[in-house]
Amino acid sequence: MRRSADEAERVPGLVCGALLISALLFFWCACASYGQGDEGGYNRALSHSFRRLGDLQLSRGEIDKARESYRKALEADPEESENYNNMGVIYKFEGKNEEALEAFRKAVELDPENVSARNNLGSVLFIMKRYKEAGSQFLEAVRLDPDNALVHANLGSVLKQVGSIREAHEQYEIALKLNRDIPVAHYHLGELLERAGEMEKALHHYERFAELKPGEPMAHYRLGSLCSRLGEHERAVGELQKAKELLPKDHKMAKALARAMMDMGRHREAAEHYAVLVEDDPKDPTLHSDLASALALAGEYDQAIAEYRKALEIDPDNSVAKRNMKVVENTKVVVARNEQWRRGRWQRRAMYGLLLVALALMAYVIVRRWTDFYRKGKNARRKSKI
Description:
- There is one protein chain.
- This protein is about 85% helix and about 0% strand.
- By secondary structure, the protein is mostly helical.
- Among the domains are: about 40-130, Serine Threonine Protein Phosphatase 5, Tetratricopeptide repeat, CATH 1.25.40; about 145-210, Tetratricopeptide repeat domain (Serine Threonine Protein Phosphatase 5, Tetratricopeptide repeat, Alpha Horseshoe), CATH 1.25.40; about 270-340, Serine Threonine Protein Phosphatase 5, Tetratricopeptide repeat (Alpha Horseshoe).
- Helix 3 runs antiparallel to helix 4, helix 15 (about 265-280) runs antiparallel to helix 16 and helix 16 (about 285-295) packs antiparallel against helix 17.
- It starts with a helix and ends with a helix.
């Protein structure tokens, strides 16, 4: 049964109303359970209700509303660890790492066994590149909850960052044994396997990462880059195009896509992508050189030489650009000569044809005259006998 437009517009409001009523009912029931005259119980119930409402709003992507609900929860019960943990999540989402760090530290101080708060504290420290402190938090979280797959994956990321590759590999494996749907574990394990040369295994993890995070540009970028290395150029181009659509201004995605197109022999399309990159960053000599290479392979020698010259204007010591420009200049001369020879070939063929026709006519005349001479001689001999 179809709803009218007015009914459809009322649905989100009805849902929000239902969520609010649910939170208020929970608050009322909790207050009743604490009994009359228990101000601490009342505040805890109020805090829990606002916290639950904030969780619902956050799951719907309503960050501002969730922040306000979590703030009210914290005001109602400033001794609850989870209230600081939730505020830290909001700060982290907004990119306020210092505020998030302070909130998570307070959450851990109030409840040292709050695994979620320790994991979040370690994540912020990791973002701030304080890897030793982050590792300590993740190790403690693993001790408190050894079956938490996400914590193992995060510990693996710290170990990978500090160069403990074997230990990082082990942590990612543990995480995926506990939960096969941890995207970060698939992504980083794929990276480690790719570095180790185990391309097929790496491809499997990148594919799973892309399935779990289809809207994540790095999922398609990693998958496309590995497919390019494996020689699956068509698939590589498809994945890298998805990555570029998700991050149209990212130069890394555009460069990878242009290189994949070069590998497929789609030089003109690659040149178009390099041209856009050059417009965005005209002072990068490498981009001018890459554009020149694509133009040269597309047969646009004059434009390619012009781009190499621009690269050398920016970086006069660029030996690669100098060498490639000489190659393109020589190629241009050879191609011009070949084209001239090709055009002259038809003229020579025409001359050879005329010569053959002339020789054929001469042969015909000679044969005809010899035949006439022979017949006349034969007739003369017959007459002399008579």
